[in-house]
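User: Can you recover a sequence for this backbone? Please restate the input before giving your answer.

Assistant: Of course. Working from this structure:
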């Protein structure tokens, strides 16, 4: 419940607020009294809201009027004993209670606030996508989506994990279509640059057509909107995605009264006088070419795909951007990291040369993402082949480790991993190049022994020996 700092009284209309506005989070209920004796007396209630939403104001008490204003009284939003009004974050609102006749007038006032909520929210924090079942979870529990054509789950995203959708055929399909028949807003993060080579890259589309946003590769990735129904129309904007630096960027689309507005990284960029409406059915691709090699997928990694079935304010767009930029949810609440037991893959690294008379060093890595820029941070168990590893063939390590193989037969050898825990594919590298290499162990060769460098010494002896 709120306390008196939310209410202030005056004998006439003040030019400025007479108390600091407080953030409306819980419902307020209170009572007061107004006295009029020839001159007006007012009570004022100033508030802000943390997110866009709706307030309901209920006033009881005879001969007292209630009016909702923006804070400087330049605009009356609503008047009456029962008021329901949309409100947006970043604005101060004022409720004015005014006695309409002489005498002591008592009242009660209740103010309720309901924050905005997405109709669908895809965080893409799942550990993997196999394409079987509806694996991308909608946080509302209504519109879970199925990964199409080999979408991978990777880290790090903007918040936890992300969906790696870098080819034109990658996409998601919700269990059932999502109604976006009037005003709507879409918030999502994408990671530049574009790598797939098709001309049009489409962020999402309605069943049967109508693209929310496309970018045209032939025009430095200029954005636009396309509608197939009721008639085929296309509107090009002026903003070009090709001007963006590589890395993650935040995108918001707001569709309202036939216009689509584009925000990048919390800032308004452009709008076009065309809006796609319908039953939303394609995430990260278009209806046109879907399921074919000519698909018009967006072709970029995506994270935090959130759908609202109403417009969101510029202040909330900026708030979402800043909240997610520091790893929180869109509304500022914290996110628990996914605990994924599976890793992306293992790597075996070798320099390509080996001798039968000396132990050969091999590096094993457990990789947490596709390019192995992140290592898996939990211990892993592997069995190395061929037999003969110093300390045993069964190894336990975390992230990366060097192991030595003593192999006394002159022959080609394939390094391998069997029974890995957790399981994951294995990739072999020789001199930094991946492939199915089989380095040869030789009976004779030259060994170079290089000492560890020491400060203040201009040179150290290098030992060269012949083996055997």
């Amino acid at each position: 419940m709120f306390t008196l700092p939310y209410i202030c009284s005056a004998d006439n209309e003040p030019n400025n607020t007479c108390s600091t506005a407080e953030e409306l989070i819980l419902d307020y209920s209170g009572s007061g009294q107004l006295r009029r004796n020839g001159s007006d007396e007012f009570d004022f209630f100033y508030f802000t809201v943390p997110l866009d939403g709706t307030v309901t104001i209920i006033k009881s008490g005879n001969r007292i009027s209630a009016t909702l204003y923006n804070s400087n009284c330049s605009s009356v939003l609503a008047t009456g004993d029962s008021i329901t009004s949309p409100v947006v974050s970043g604005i101060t609102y004022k409720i004015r209670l005014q006695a309409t006749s002489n005498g002591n007038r008592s009242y009660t006032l209740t103010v309720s606030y309901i924050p905005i909520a997405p109709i669908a929210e895809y965080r893409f924090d799942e550990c993997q996508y196999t394409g079987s079942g509806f694996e991308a979870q909608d946080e509302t529990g209504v519109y879970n989506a199925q990964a199409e054509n080999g979408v991978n789950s990777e880290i790090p995203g903007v918040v936890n994990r992300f969906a790696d959708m870098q080819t034109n055929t990658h996409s998601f399909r919700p269990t059932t279509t999502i109604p976006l028949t009037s005003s709507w807003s879409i918030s999502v993060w994408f990671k530049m640059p574009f790598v797939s080579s098709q001309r049009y890259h489409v962020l999402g589309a309605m069943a049967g057509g109508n693209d929310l946003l496309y970018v045209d590769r032939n025009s430095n990735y200029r954005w636009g909107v396309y509608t197939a129904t009721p008639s085929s129309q296309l509107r090009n904007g002026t903003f070009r995605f090709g001007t963006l630096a590589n890395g993650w960027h935040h995108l918001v689309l707001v569709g309202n009264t036939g216009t689509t507005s584009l925000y990048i990284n919390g800032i308004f960029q452009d709008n076009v006088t065309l809006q796609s409406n319908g039953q939303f059915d394609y995430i990260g691709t278009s209806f046109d070419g879907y399921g074919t090699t000519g698909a018009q997928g967006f072709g970029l990694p995506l994270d935090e795909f959130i759908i609202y079935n109403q417009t969101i304010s510029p202040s909330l767009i900026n708030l979402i951007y800043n909240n997610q930029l520091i790893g929180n949810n869109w509304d500022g609440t914290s996110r628990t990291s996914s605990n994924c037991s599976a890793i992306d893959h293992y790597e075996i690294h070798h320099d390509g040369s080996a001798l039968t008379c000396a132990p050969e060093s091999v590096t094993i890595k457990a990789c947490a993402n596709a390019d192995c820029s992140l290592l898996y941070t939990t211990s892993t168990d592997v069995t190395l082949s061929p037999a003969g590893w110093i300390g045993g063939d069964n190894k336990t390590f975390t992230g990366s480790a060097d192991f030595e193989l003593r192999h006394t037969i002159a022959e080609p050898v394939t390094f391998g991993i069997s029974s890995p825990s957790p399981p994951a594919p294995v990739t072999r590298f020789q001199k930094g190049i991946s492939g199915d290499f089989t380095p040869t162990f030789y009976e004779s060769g030259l060994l170079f022994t290089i000492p560890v460098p020491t400060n203040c010494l201009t040179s150290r002896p290098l030992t060269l020996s012949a083996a055997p």
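That completes the design. The helical segments are 314-325.
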